[in-house]
TrEMBL record, chain A:
Name of the protein this chain belongs to: Penicillin-binding protein 2
GO CC, alphabetical: plasma membrane
Signal sequence, renumbered to the chain: none
Domain annotation Penicillin binding protein A dimerisation: ranges: 52-134
GO biological process: cell wall organization
Database matches in Pfam families: PBP_dimer_2 (PF21922), Transpeptidase (PF00905)
Residue intervals of the Penicillin-binding protein transpeptidase domain: 155-479
Amino acid sequence: MNRELKRVTIVSLLMFLTLFVASTIIQYAQADNLAADPRNARTLYQSYSVERGPILVGGDPIAFSEPSDDDYKFQRIYANGPLYAPVTGFIPVNGEATGLEGSLNAELSGTSESQFFDSLNRLISGQDPMGASVEVTIDPVAQQAAWDALGDYTGAIIVTQPSSGRIVAMVTKPTYDPNSLAVHNGEEVDQTYRNLVEDPGDPLFNRATGGDMNPPGSVFKLVMTAAALESGQYTPDSTFPNPAEFTLPETSSVVRNSSGGTCGGGSEVTLATALRLSCNIPFAELALELGDDAIRAQAEKFGFNSNFSIPNPTETSTYPANPDAPQTALSGFGQGDVRATPMQMAMVSAAIANGGIVMDPDLVESITAPDFRPIEEFDATQFGRAISESTARTMTEMMVNGVENGAASNARIDGVSVAGKTGTAENGEDDPYTLWFTGFAPADDPQYAITVLVEDGGGLGQEGFGNLIAAPLAKQVLEAVLNK
Amino acid sequence: MTDRSAARAPERAPATGSVRRIRMPQKLRNLELGLLIVACVINAGAIVLVQLGALGRIDTQLVLLGAGLSVLVFGLHVAMRFVARDADPFLLPIATVLNGLGIAMIYRIDIAYGDAGWESAAVRQIVWSVIAIVAALATILLIRNHRTLFRYTYLSGLIAIVLLLLPLVPGLGQTRGGARVWIGIGDLVTFQPGEIAKIALAVFFAGYLVRNRDSLSMVGRTFLGMRFPRGRDLGPLLVVWALSMAVIVFQRDLGTALLYFGLFLVMLYVATSRLSWVVLGLSMFFAGAIIASQTLDYVNGRFQNWLNAFDPAVYDAQGGSFQLVQGLFGLANGGLIGTGLGQGRPDLTPVPQSDYIIASLGEELGLAGLFAILALYVLFVARGFRIGFAGQDDFGKLLGVGLSFVVALQVFIVVGGVTRVIPLTGLTTPFLAAGGSSLVANWIIVALLLRLSDTVRNHPRLVIDG
């Protein structure tokens, strides 16, 4: 009997051994995979059980966590939610976080590698885990001024610091309240989110860095002028034929200047005049002379066809890869297949203001651990040189002239010299225009670069134009930030 | 084997044997007392940690209830000093610590659910523990010699059958989680008679096999190097197989069927030394289980949940793998060292106090805690098998093996189900899971094993030789 008993003992031990192995597989070998399963509510709750670090503007929190009594332990609150929505984004209980909440999730939740020892230390010392705080580059005065200026328009305003790439203000409208998506009820979040997605105004778009990509229209003439001057074959005084109508090559389509007539009179027009008065025909001619490769090369030096994370993801502004001759001509005044975000146009203005060097745009001023140890400090990085210093100086003069004596006159500020360029971009044949202004001030000591985008013709359909709608908004914001 | 040891023993028995016999029991009971104190300290610690972890403060009420339970366990210990002085010193402390950890975890989930008073499963579990320990005490006081049970072999068989049939009686039987294995009056007092039936079955199998093992083991044809039994000797196997299949079909309880059948096969094998019985029996059972999985929806569902647990269709299905996968998430959340008592989210898993208590414990105590719990079971089962090795009468040996193996098999079926080793079936984790019938049955098993080990120790020659 004992022989059998021995075997039964061995079988029983094997049964237990199986259990030891199986539980080791689940709790050790497969633990990470199981934690990563999207159906695992524990993982989600855990990301909430940490006191998420705040997002600060000028030391004041615009997103912070407050203890709550439910499964999630903390409620995320967005102070002044709609104003800062394009900066903070939101973190829903049942989906992916957007904005800084998404792009800096690891830091805010205290799980980034640089916080490993900090969290370990807190674990050992029995303190509750806590995420890092993120200070952003936004200036609350500039942000509020941009919000007020944009009013009820559909569009965006972005203000940057030319020398560093800091984003000082970033406003988009219409927008949403991130608090409505931070409620601890998945179904409610889903419903709110669906409503926002179906809203014809697309409030979830950040039009400053993406959304419906717009043609830049005449503000792209800055890139054209830069390409011309950089080629060494053109000066501001180089001349172009000045007809009232220009037929695109290989087609019967006719291009006109916005005035309907010639560009300022005379049979020939200089580059400087064409930019100051924002005429289309000379730039179509210039585009055909330069060719799409040269234009694309210049555009790409400004940041077109490159992707930037600020660290929020942004849309890429594009100059087409292989335009035919008529498309190339259209690209000369920012039409055709050219698409740009306000952030990209702000980078163009900022580069001109910054002696030709393009800085990488960035929203993050600093990241600080809960023990006040700095994790990351702002570090201005160059995207590269787009134009020479002398070209930058020349273009600044041309843009100042555009505001003082040209098509961007409504951006004039008493006592401050403003460099600027307006744009009025066509969309479909009967669609309302897209209105632009991009520029910087003060022109002799650039502090701020600004780009204003107003979609839907500012409510005026095809009657609205950049200088009428967009330029005054830029003026209003620049006045506010320069006078503070 | 008995003969061989008996023949040798006189020569090897030391001259001081009689002296040791008087001194040993004292030592054993003192060891037991020491271990019991450790067990109660662990249990009290677990409850306090649960309160600190989940409530953030200490609530004396439950600590007092737990202390009352400890007093009762010490009462059992004192009783044994008089009536079972030579009993195994490990069984009682192991049962105590498992019972206590179970209460702590059930209480922890009560806190998460916000249950208190009679709503609290922990309070009910404590009351059931009291009943179970009193039942164990009664068993050990009433059955002074396990051979008494041998006389009631067939009565035990009858009792087992009646207990198994009870849930099928209209008006008395209740269906829960799809299985019709409960009896009760309303929701007030419910009982799973099948848990007690496993003890009656072990007694019946032991008695029956000791009486009939010669005819079951001696004759038969040899085939493939194994001697297979004659057709007419297949009777008992067929009856037990039919019984298990009936449990699967009528009570819809795969786990219980597997438990009974496995118990019978092991006891049959130990009694007859015929491996052919095991081969035959396992083939029959698996054939039956496979047919059942093809024809019975609930069995098929269990297999689907097991094999394709993470398939979204299976996961979302009614009665699908949702709870199994939630249990796995819980275990994974525990990792190596666990979240700490009161700090995890075992309440996210369905039935975390009963079927999934092992996942709850694994989440909060981690792999380390789970290993410790499994090791306690291994030790418990090993102490039981020791009776089998050392016992001097075949009935006692068989009963000891049967009762220990039924615990081992039950742990394997339920923990294996939760950890996806085998399809999940609704059995209780001995001593840990919330549920009165299981507690009472397992504490009676403790009492019987204690009684058996006491008899074994009364014959030190076998202890030395064993």
